[in-house]
Amino acid sequence: MRGNSDSSEDMNVSLDGAQAADIKQWTEENKGFKEAAEKFAVEAGVTAPMDLSLMDERIRIRSAIQAGSIQEAMRMVTTLHPEILDDNSELYFHLQQLVLLELIREGRVEEAVIYAQEHLAERGASDPNVRQQLERTLALLAFPQPLSSPFADLLHPSHRQKVRQICVIFF
Question: Where do transmembrane segments lie in this chain (predicted)?
Answer without folding.
Answer: none
